[in-house]
Amino acid sequence: MSVWDRTPERRRATAWTAAATGAPYGSVDAEEVFTAATAADEGGRLEQGKLYRGVSGVDRGPQPMSAEELAGLEDPMAVVFFRQGKWPMTLEDLLNGLTQANALPAQAVYMISEAGQIAAEEAPALQRDFRFAIARAAAPGREPDLLVSSDPASAFLQVAAWDPGTRVFNYYMRISPTWVWTGDSWSALAPESRGKGCFDSHVNGSVVMKELKQPWINWQSMSATIQLTPDDPLRDNPLYREVIGAERLELTVRGLVTRWTAARLAAVSGDGAVEHPDHLLRQLFTSTTVNLASASTQSATVARDSRDLVLPMGFWLNADALINDLGLPVSVESAPSAPGSLYADSLATFGFRLEEKTSSFSRQGDTFFAFVVPEAAHEDNDVVRQLVEKGLVPAKFAACALMVDFTNPVFSPVRGHLMSYVPTEPASTSTWCNDIAAEIVHAASTLPAGSPEGQFAENWSLPEAEWRAVFAKRVDAYLEKAAARIRTASGFDDCTRLAESRRREFKAQRLNEFELTLPATNIPVDAPRQRMNEDATVTAVP
User: Fold this and answer.
1) Do 429 and 392 contact (CB within 8 A), yes or no?
2) I need a labelling partner for 115 at 20 to 30 A (CA). Which of 51, 446, 496, 540 fits?
């Protein structure tokens, strides 16, 4: 039994329950913040007035922090509260404590709910799961140094706080009657704690906003307003009256991701060597995590006679990295679009519905914004972008890697295969990418041209002055084929199957917390994985 299982102090993650997964709650190891069986056997209730450490995968049970360990924490939670013997137990206590200490006085409040666009009268038994995300900064316009996640009742209370001394985010959670330090940004990258506890979502050590781009799915924003009944008590909550649009939170999260990436690269790339090259390049060759993107159109407004539905560009390729960061001069200006009639037909053909098994809720149709799919993670792209900008990785090397199986921007086993050529020991910053490329090219000489190695070798053979233009021409040709094919019934249905295949892979991750985040369909859960080809056809993964 974990501390999670002995307390209600966590989000009501409906996608993790037995009803949603068919597995006993707690069967997934990454669910636990830390194992507390030993502490429970010894009557180990947490004591008020002590800060504990509990890093999942490292600590067998909650361990009181020593005075030396506490003194080493320089983030706002440690400085304002824990070192002063203060233990805020509610969201109100925490925010008021910061204000009374004149610490980080600039406050921004955001709100999210996966059920926020479902009218309460339509589903009175459906829990709304409103959550606040609150950013506190030293002054208006400054990047925040503390982010708080909680619900209005403070049933759970979690904090990410920037430590200016160690240049990491420290992660804390309240477990009454005290607080637990659950690790820092480096813990996310350490093998023993990677993917466990809070690092099942803070995968690479930074703050997270899955729905990062417009229309900011499920967030209160300029694109959508979360629905409340006239008598909802939340209307009287002072924080609710401060809620602003998630378009501002996007900028905050992007800035904080950049801050941690810069600190991380500075720490691992000194003295002419890069430490753990595999930790860095897995964010180039694989999907360490994902963001969620969608059309900007509300699904309920799409009818057979509607205007075209523009699908998210991140469904087709990693445009953020290839076009925006690496500068491929593509001529296609917008993502492919499909007639509204094909989308409307697909909802019926594939039995689209929103459902939450834990509350027996089900409704025909898609999510509020149409066609939600995983796309390449901003935090992965930011690592690649900064590696290139700092001269640690040649732009051509990054592009050659991303152009391998580029039509599958997430969950690509083809591109991921190339990780086998990345060293795990420190490597020279001046030669590491060329050395990796040479190994791949050498291996390609005995493999088929279409192998991952063969694709990379062909890309790498392009002259320095030509690779951007050649890659842009391939991207343009692919998007033109995709734009034509998605306007046919068979082509759109294939893309629907591909989208569902990628959603299934996302649903298998702990980042998927709520059943209502994504639609359900009649496509079998064990259907073959699908992949997009460069001719815009969709086929099963061999």
Assistant:
1) yes
2) 496
Find the farthest-apart pair of alpha carbons in the chain and give their distance in angstroms, rounded.
70
User: Which stretches within 210-312 are classed as H helix?
Assistant: 246-268, 277-285
d(CA 23, CA 25) in angstroms, rounded, equals 6
Q: Give φ, ψ of 225 to 5 degrees.
A: -110, 130
The residue type at 258: T
Judging by DSSP bridges, how do beta strands 273-274 and 178-184 pair with one another? unpaired
In angstroms, the Cα distances linking 115 to 229, 230, 294, 447 are 13, 17, 17, 50
Residue 206 is given by DSSP the state: S
DSSP β-ladder status, 106-112 and 63-64: unpaired
How many residues are listed for the chain in this entry? 542
Query: In the beta sheet, which residues pair with residue 324?
Result: none
**Peptide bond connecting 8 to the previous residue in cis, omega within 30 degrees of 0:** no
C-alpha dihedral sign at 24, 29, 30, 35: positive
Q: Tens digit of pLDDT per residue, the chain (542 long)?
A: 334 334 457 666 777 664 455 443 333 333 343 443 333 333 358 999 999 999 999 998 889 999 999 999 999 999 999 999 999 999 999 999 999 999 999 999 999 999 999 998 889 889 889 999 999 999 999 999 999 999 999 999 999 999 999 999 999 999 999 999 999 999 999 999 999 999 999 999 999 999 999 999 999 999 999 999 999 999 999 999 999 999 999 999 999 999 999 999 999 998 999 999 999 999 999 999 999 999 999 999 999 888 999 999 999 999 999 999 999 999 998 999 999 999 999 999 999 999 999 889 999 999 999 999 999 999 999 999 999 999 999 999 999 999 999 999 999 999 999 999 999 999 999 999 999 999 999 999 999 999 999 999 999 999 999 999 999 999 999 999 999 999 999 999 999 999 999 999 999 999 999 999 999 999 999 999 999 999 999 999 98
Place of tokens 């914004």: 369
400, containing H or E segment: helix 395-402
CA distance 237 to 65: 35
Beta-carbon count within 10 A of 481 CB: 17
Q: Of 251, 472, 280, 260, which is closest to residue 388 (Cα–Cα)?
A: 280
Contacts of residue 319, defined as CB under 8 A and 6 or more positions apart, other chains included, come to: 313
Backbone angles phi, psi at 93, to 5 degrees: -60, -40
> CA 114 to CA 519: how far, in whole Å?
11
Cβ atoms of residues 394 and 433 within 8 Å? yes
User: In angstroms, rounded to a whole number, what is the distance separating the alpha carbons of residues 461 and 464?
Assistant: 9
